[in-house]
Amino acid sequence: MFKSASRRLMGSQATLALGRAPKAPSQPPKIVEKTPYPLPTSSRGVERRRLDDMHHGIARYLKQLTFAPIENPSQILELGSGTGAWSVEAARTFPSAEVIAADMSPLPETLNTLPNLTFKQMNFLEPFPFRPETFDVVHMRFVLMHLPQPDNYIHRLASLLRPGGWLLLEDVNHTLLDANRPIGPGVQALYRGYREHMHNQGVDPGVGARLKKMLETSKKFTEVNEIVIPCYMNPNSTEDLALQELGEILKYSIDGVYVGIMDKVGPTGGITPEILRGWRKEVNDPERDLRIDMHLTWSRKL
Ligand SMILES: C[S@@+](CC[C@H](N)C(=O)[O-])C[C@H]1O[C@@H](n2cnc3c(N)ncnc32)[C@H](O)[C@@H]1O
């Protein structure tokens, strides 16, 4: 049902392959004010691979850039572009649009970018350096959960859009759910540390589950659409191969988040090697049916 609905909504298929194109202009490294983002801000190495794998896992599952029925956009903004994978696909899918990728970390120098893609370095905790009602599309994925007072961003994001433009807001509900039984002590111990750490940073790791309500109550959009993708930790939980793959990627990706917090913040981040081992044992337990839900929304500005 999900796949046929998606085909109906948008026929164009986003291509995954990055072709040869001019290299991204190298960005002078700039000091960005402290933010709650817990992971390395450099988009090199392990963190870069983690983000790219997630992007490609999602793209393989969706088979398109977005379900929003976007037509002839001229200005597209991605806030929190990470490795630039989504922005490159947007620039390729809409070659006559100008795409701006924005992040506090520069795009990787090795990225094969496109002539209609530019990068802007910024901190989203500060006012956006754009005129109101500039963009036809604003995309923000896995970023809102790292911003304090996320509810305030709905109005800020809406103000960037032209009337009729699309806000593509996407996040996980960073909570493991088990369809069949209570969560075990390993996951509980990890969550105690992780949630406390995120709470101390003033951010909401469960914001994904609130997106639809936040968008609806803002009264800034004529339509608010959402799909929820269950990312299973146990491949036996689903027969859908793309979902199995996405679940596997998510599992290793969130493991990377915990390792990142452990490395960057140390024991005060609430995650120790022992806690991590307990978590790993439980998420890999073939008797369990654990999943994390990914919430993808697309909303049309009034
Ligand atoms: C989890 S990554 C997601 C990257 C990309 N959207 C994706 O889906 O692969 C979060 C990104 O948000 C950026 N970020 C987090 N907080 C930020 C802030 N306050 N200002 C600017 N960028 C921020 C990080 O640098 C990182 O690239």
**Strand count:** 7
pLDDT averaged residue by residue: 87
Helical/strand content category: alpha/beta
**Beta fraction:** 15-25%
Biggest β-sheet description: 7 strands, mixed
Gap between N and C termini: 28 Å
- Percent helix, as a range, is 25-40%
- In order across it, which strands form the biggest sheet? 3-2-1-4-5-7-6
Ligands, deduplicated? S-adenosylmethionine
Identify low-pLDDT runs.
1-31
Please tell me about this protein's structure.
With 302 residues, this protein is an alpha/beta fold. 35% of the residues lie in helices and 22% in strands. A 7-stranded mixed beta sheet has the order 3-2-1-4-5-7-6. Helix 3 (85-93) links the parallel strand 1 (75-79) and strand 2. The longest helix is centred in the last third of the chain and has 25 residues, at 241-265. Residues 1-31 have low confidence and may be disordered. S-adenosylmethionine binds at residues 35, 37, 41, 51, 54-55, 80, 82, 103-105, 123-125, 141-143, 146.
Can you describe this structure in just a few lines?
It comes from Lentinula detonsa. GO terms for molecular function: methyltransferase activity. Helices cover 35% and strands 22% of the residues.
Record the SSE blueprint.
Layout: H1 2-9, H2 45-62, E1 75-79, H3 85-93, E2 98-103, E3 117-121, E4 135-141, H4 151-160, E5 161-178, H5 185-200, H6 211-218, E6 221-232, H7 241-265, H8 273-283, E7 290-301
Parallel strand pairs: 1-2, 1-4, 2-3, 4-5
Antiparallel strand pairs: 5-7, 6-7
Helix pairs in contact: 2-7, 5-8, 7-8
Bound molecules: S-adenosylmethionine (SAM).
